[in-house]
Structure formats: C-alpha cells, structure tokens
Amino acid sequence: DGMHRLRCLARGLHASAVRRLDDGERRIADKLRTSLEATEVDVQDQSGGCGAQYAVSVVSERFRGLSLVQQQRLVNNVLKDEFKEIHSLRIFTKVPKKE
What is the DSSP secondary structure assignment for residue 46, as one 8-state letter? Predict the structure, then answer.
C-alpha cells in the first residue's frame, strides 16, 4: 500500500553509508550463487530495507551462449519463491571473461 512504500522510502533515505547485506539480500545472494554457480553476485535492496525492490547483478558461466532474456529467466526461476515479497526486481547478468 501507499504508506508501506512511503515508510520504505523514508528508511532508504536514512540508510547508513556503510554497505552490509541484510537478511533478504544475503538470502537472495546465496540462492543465486549456489543455483547459478555464480562467480560474482551483488544484491541491493533498493527499498531501504523493506524487501520490496531489489537490484541483482550476477556473473555466471551458465549464461554463456544464452540470450539476455534466457539469462534473466534463469535468475527469475531461481528467485521464484521470493516473488511473494518482491514487488520490483532489476536484473543485470554477465558472462565471465575468458582468461
């Protein structure tokens, strides 16, 4: 509802400059890291700790050869149980560079 979103925004404005993963961010990061064998994962709760809006960045070899849409579907599939609480999810995917 509108008041919930307003409280989320207010919390976000008062968030500490020091970045630590909260429980929701940690849970999502662990799922992505494990399920996609990701070499890099970054999760940010963009709702100020409410868990309503997240941005995730994932680097995984599993994305190699897949279209961007297919990569994002993989991420969505991993997080399908989280969608009960998440209202917005921004997904950034990347294939690791070959050495």
Answer: T
Mean pLDDT computed over every residue of the chain: 83
User: How many beta carbons lie within 10 A of that of residue 35, not counting itself?
Assistant: 16
Helix (H) or strand (E) holding 4: helix 2-13
Q: Give the integer Cα–Cα distance in Å for 55 and 85.
A: 14
Residue 64, judged by CB atoms within 10 A of its CB (0-12, 13-18, 19+), counts as: exposed
The rounded distance, in Å, linking the Cα atoms of 42 and 93 is 11
Is-contact 19 67, C-beta < 8 A? no
The dihedral built from the CA positions of residue 60, 65, 68 and 74, taken in this order, carries a sign that is: negative
CA pair distance 78, 41, nearest whole angstrom: 13
Lowest mean pLDDT segment, chosen from 8-12, 44-48, 87-91:
8-12
